Backbone:
């Protein structure tokens, strides 16, 4: 019996090994795609790319510490498959909004992956009180001109918060000298990064001894950049129709108080939930607007919601 059991175990192992995570081309039919969903899974060590960079600044991958830290983030983010698939889906929806704003400000396109690791491209709230896709603190938001109060929190406005992130990153780059250090400073602050560089007598992120979060920060950005740009290489199979898309909107300008946004939404043949989906910066069901400020409210075009 023991020999039979060992034989069966060996056959089982061979069967598992026979499965492959190697990416395949875009499936031709839904039937073949669904079949692959249940038969293509296995776990492998990942081959480190020969070259990786952030904003055109190369990683010193021949450094064994850098190699191991990069390998960790590639593994963690590749094999957290459900999260990675959600990021592919959300990126298709939100990158077209973020990319032109980065370009307008002269910020490297790679910084869109910073938003990915900050919030997963959701309107997250951190334990420290940072909010929105770019995880901006209240004081920082006000310093850069965003409105934050009980009625309105523009940290939840993707376009406006991206503008603020760009201004912050430009300031960091001017102070610290490289885009990699500017990215690290988005997590640890300009002063925090500057003081560590001075204390450790180095001038490069990859030479710094940092705490767990900031020490992983840039590596996580680069890992998501690598994975999101090479889905098949890392075993992610999906069709274009599986990705999320942004519902087109038009703008309604409001310069008065709004007593009831549920009633306001009905005027445009939508409900309060849909109004909030497209305007998450509206924090309450009404708007005081005693200053008669002009607000732009996004209304989805007809035909996208029932």
Residues:
């Amino acid at each position: 019996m023991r020999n039979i059991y060992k034989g069966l175990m060996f056959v089982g192992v061979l069967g598992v090994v026979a499965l492959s995570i190697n990416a395949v081309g875009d499936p031709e039919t839904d039937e073949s795609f669904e079949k692959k969903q249940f038969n293509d899974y296995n776990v492998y060590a990942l081959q480190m790319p020969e070259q990786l960079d952030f904003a055109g600044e190369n990683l010193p991958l021949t450094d064994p510490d850098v190699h191991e830290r990069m390998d960790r983030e590639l593994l963690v983010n590749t094999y957290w498959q459900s999260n990675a698939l959600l990021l592919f889906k959300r990126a298709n929806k939100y990158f077209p909004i973020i990319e032109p704003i980065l370009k307008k400000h002269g910020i490297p396109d790679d910084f869109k992956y910073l938003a990915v690791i900050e919030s997963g491209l959701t309107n997250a709230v951190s334990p420290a009180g940072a909010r929105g896709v770019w995880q901006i603190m209240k004081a920082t938001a006000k310093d850069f001109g965003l409105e934050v109060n009980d009625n309105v929190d523009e940290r939840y406005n993707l376009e406006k918060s991206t503008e603020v992130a760009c201004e912050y990153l430009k300031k960091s780059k001017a102070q610290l000298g490289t885009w990699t250090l500017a990215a690290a400073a988005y997590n640890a602050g300009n002063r925090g990064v500057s003081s560590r560089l001075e204390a450790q007598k180095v001038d490069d992120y990859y030479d710094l001894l940092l705490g767990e979060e900031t020490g992983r920060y840039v590596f996580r950005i680069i890992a998501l950049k690598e994975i999101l740009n090479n889905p098949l290489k890392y075993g992610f199979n999906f069709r274009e129709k599986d990705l999320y898309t942004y519902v087109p909107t038009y703008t309604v300008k409001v310069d008065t108080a709004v007593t009831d946004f549920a009633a306001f939404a009905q005027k445009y043949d939508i409900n309060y939930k849909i109004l909030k989906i497209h305007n998450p910066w509206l924090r309450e069901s009404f708007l005081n607007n005693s200053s008669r400020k002009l607000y732009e409210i996004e209304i989805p075009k007809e035909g996208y919601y029932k």
